[in-house]
């Protein structure tokens, strides 16, 4: 939420010209006069004595006193210096003229003339230049008047956050009214100037000027992109209530039209917090004049200590929205938008939840199932000290708009007994479960006759499961680098799940899980229950960790494997495959809190080749970082684990991608960021970004160039097909100070704000 600082505008130029009535009939040179007289002002400075010095004093008894030559008046933090000062004793009005300089501790001003009514502490300044001393802000005004305790009026005034001598930008208005109690400034006929050239005009403008949230316009921003041309954003902030606010932004895009964005936020101690965001462009000139929009509703709340309400709903008008617009709505990283809502109740021994879920897939010809709805109930209770009982259950209705696929109702209940044994150096958990599932699949009306013949309308599936997992913790001191501690944590698990024919059950919400080291010890290979993989296997592995003398984890290495007692439960098309899974290895290192490394490998013992691999090394500096990363997925792994009909639309020979990411703060004003990713399989660049930013005291500008792989001009990846790219040159200009301050933002922010599809990640898993 962005606001002006409190001491905006010349309105806060509040000085004391608090001169006591003086009785003198003759001229005096080099005068120093003191008085403890105070006025009715509530200022603490008014209760302090006034000290006036001057080279000369001429006074007429009962009429006026004229001070001249190096006149200086001080009272507390307030001071005034001028060539002459006249005190009109009858009206108790003081007038200072000629090279007038004022300060009150918060602001300094130079003025031609100051008139101060000592009875009510109102004053006026003519032809004034002012500078805030504690905060950004300076300007000038033809006339400034203090009309109340915290009310000020400026005529022909200006304000800028630029330092003296820098007129990069300013706000100029015919009239400016400031209410410091309300922390608001009202500008009449304001114009926004860059290098003294007007670029925007408003008949009326209100601005927040305090530390608290206030309604008003925020500073606009201007940018240029080679795809969309010039863009201008003008935001307005509405502080509806202490727990409610709305930011409305009008965005002009040269090649598309006018786009409106709104973000409404709320916070309640009784039902939680949330945000509603929306965007719309009525006729996109670059998209056949179609209306395009996006919206998102997020809510999370705890009610009465037991009830939970969670909503995450986002939707866009078309699949190209994220390619054409920069937006914080939803996320395109996973290729879909989530539309879900959950209400749950939690008690000491049970919980229940009602959930609905749908997806908007950002690809053509893909239709997901809707969960409409799911009712889940879980019960858990300790029977004895070392015996627990629990029941997991759910009833789910799945529907889909695709007539070739069936709707379905799924009922699932899963009772289980668990024996937990724990100590400071070992754990051993044994559990037995019984998985019972019933399906009613609406296959009578589906248009896919092949699928209709494979599925059954009514299916009952009962599968027993047994699992026993044990781990031991060893620790020893090491005389390395001043005293390290090493832990050794072996673990072993036996898992049995009965092999059951499930070919007549369709897949509604189930995907295969990645089998990294930590996945070796899961009891399921799939994310949900449409497919429950048979198992008769032993998983074994170990982790070793290294801690320094402050017990900060500096490194860990984990490795493990599965031995399939029943080789038929191994997912492979190779009849000659061994009874062993791939080796899974994970490693993390932290060298002196500057150099970090993370790597993971899955090595196929049958094919004697890597299936999966990832590696990241990052060096962090006080002013930036540089990261190199690599990821690999073999074609065999893709074919064994993904259910695509034609893998040529994804890859020709697996995935092998290398990347380089970095940011650096060159000077206090200059910073740079960049990233580059290259596909070593297809020998093409995937995407790259180069960005340079300059930040002054009152404005900033970012120049960037990006190039993203958007697809291939043929039906397959590689071969005779050619890569297609989206190239974009961007220039972004904004204002520093008051409502915005991006100078202190790190260069990392340029990466976070970019629209690159591959985001910077910090994949380091160390306990510190």
TrEMBL record:
Database matches in Pfam families: LptD (PF04453), LptD_N (PF03968)
Subcellular location: Cell outer membrane
Presence of the UniProt keyword Signal in the record: yes
Signal sequence extent: 1-24
Residues covered by the Organic solvent tolerance-like N-terminal domain: 52-183
Annotated ranges, domain LptD C-terminal: 291-670
Function in brief: Together with LptE, is involved in the assembly of lipopolysaccharide (LPS) at the surface of the outer membrane.
Similarity remark: Belongs to the LptD family.
Protein name per the record: LPS-assembly protein LptD
Species of provenance: Vibrio sp. HB236076
Taxonomy of the source species: Bacteria, Pseudomonadati, Pseudomonadota, Gammaproteobacteria, Vibrionales
């Amino acid at each position: 939420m962005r606001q002006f600082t409190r001491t905006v505008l010349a309105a806060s130029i509040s000085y004391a010209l608090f001169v006591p009535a003086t009785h003198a009939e003759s001229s005096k040179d080099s005068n120093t006069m003191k008085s403890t007289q105070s006025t009715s002002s509530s200022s603490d400075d008014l209760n302090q004595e006034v000290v006036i010095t001057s080279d000369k004093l001429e006074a007429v008894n009962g009429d006026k006193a004229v001070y001249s030559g190096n006149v200086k008046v001080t009272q507390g933090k307030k001071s005034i210096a001028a060539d002459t000062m006249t005190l009109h004793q009858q009206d108790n009005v003081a007038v200072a003229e000629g090279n007038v300089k004022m300060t009150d501790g918060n602001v300094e001003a130079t003025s031609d003339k100051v008139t101060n009514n000592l009875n009510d502490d109102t004053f006026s300044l003519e032809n004034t230049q002012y500078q805030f001393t504690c905060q950004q802000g300076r300007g000038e005004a033809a006339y400034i008047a203090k009309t109340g305790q915290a009310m000020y009026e400026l005529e022909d005034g200006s304000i800028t956050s630029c330092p003296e001598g820098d007129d990069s930008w300013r706000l100029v208005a015919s009239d400016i009214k400031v209410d410091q109690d309300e922390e608001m400034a009202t500008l009449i006929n304001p114009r926004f100037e860059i290098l003294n050239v007007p670029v925007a005009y408003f008949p009326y403008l209100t601005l927040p000027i305090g530390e608290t949230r206030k309604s008003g316009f925020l500073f606009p921003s201007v940018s240029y992109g080679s795809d969309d041309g010039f863009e201008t954003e003008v935001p307005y902030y509405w502080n509806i209530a202490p727990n409610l606010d709305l930011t409305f932004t009008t965005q002009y895009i040269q090649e598309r039209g006018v786009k409106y964005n709104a973000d409404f936020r709320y916070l309640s101690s009784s039902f939680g917090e949330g945000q509603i965001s929306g965007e719309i462009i009525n006729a996109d000139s670059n998209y056949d004049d179609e209306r395009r929009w996006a919206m998102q509703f997020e809510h999370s709340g705890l009610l009465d200590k037991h009830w939970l309400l969670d909503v995450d709903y986002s939707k866009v008008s078309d699949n190209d929205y994220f390619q054409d617009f920069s937006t914080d709505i939803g996320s395109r990283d996973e290729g879909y938008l989530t539309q879900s809502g959950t209400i749950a109740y939690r008690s000491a021994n049970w919980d229940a939840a009602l959930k609905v879920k749908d997806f908007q897939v950002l690809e053509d010809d893909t239709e997901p199932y809707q969960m409409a709805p799911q009712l889940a109930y879980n019960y858990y209770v300790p029977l004895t000290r070392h015996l627990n009982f629990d029941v997991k259950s759910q009833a789910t209705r799945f529907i889909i708009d695709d007539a070739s696929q069936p709707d379905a109702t799924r009922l699932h209940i899963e009772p289980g007994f668990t024996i937990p044994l724990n100590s400071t150096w070992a754990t051993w958990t044994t559990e037995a479960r019984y998985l019972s599932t019933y399906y009613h699949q609406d296959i009578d009306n589906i248009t896919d006759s092949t699928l209709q013949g494979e599925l059954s309308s009514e299916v009952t599936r009962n599968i027993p499961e047994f699992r026993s997992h044990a781990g031991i913790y060893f620790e020893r001191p090491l005389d390395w680098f001043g005293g390290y501690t090493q832990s050794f944590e072996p673990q072993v698990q036996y898992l049995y799940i009965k092999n059951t024919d499930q070919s007549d059950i369709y897949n509604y919400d189930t995907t295969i899980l990645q089998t990294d080291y930590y996945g070796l010890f899961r009891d399921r290979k799939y994310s949900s229950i449409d497919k429950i993989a048979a198992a008769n296997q032993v998983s074994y592995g170990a982790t070793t960790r290294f801690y320094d003398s402050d017990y900060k984890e500096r490194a860990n290495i984990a490795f493990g494997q599965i031995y399939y007692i029943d080789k038929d439960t191994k997912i492979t098309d190779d009849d000659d495959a061994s009874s062993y899974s791939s080796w899974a290895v994970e490693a993390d290192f932290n060298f002196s809190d500057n150099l970090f490394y993370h790597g993971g490998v899955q090595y196929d013992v049958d094919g004697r080749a890597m299936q999966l691999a990832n590696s990241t090394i990052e060096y962090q500096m006080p002013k930036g970082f540089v990261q190199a990363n690599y990821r690999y997925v073999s074609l065999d792994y893709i074919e064994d684990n993904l259910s695509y009909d034609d893998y040529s639309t994804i890859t020709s020979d697996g995935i092998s991608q290398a990347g380089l990411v970095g940011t650096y703060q060159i000077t206090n004003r200059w910073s740079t960021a960049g990233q580059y990713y290259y596909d070593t399989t297809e020998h093409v660049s995937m995407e790259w970004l180069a960005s340079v930013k300059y930040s002054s005291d009152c404005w900033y500008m970012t120049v960037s160039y990006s190039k993203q792989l958007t697809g291939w001009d043929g039906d397959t990846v590689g071969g005779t097909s050619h890569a297609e790219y989206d190239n974009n040159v961007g220039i972004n200009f904004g204002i520093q100070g008051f409502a915005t301050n991006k100078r202190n933002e790190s260069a990392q922010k340029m990466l976070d704000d970019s629209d690159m599809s591959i985001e910077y990640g910090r994949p380091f898993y160390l306990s510190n």
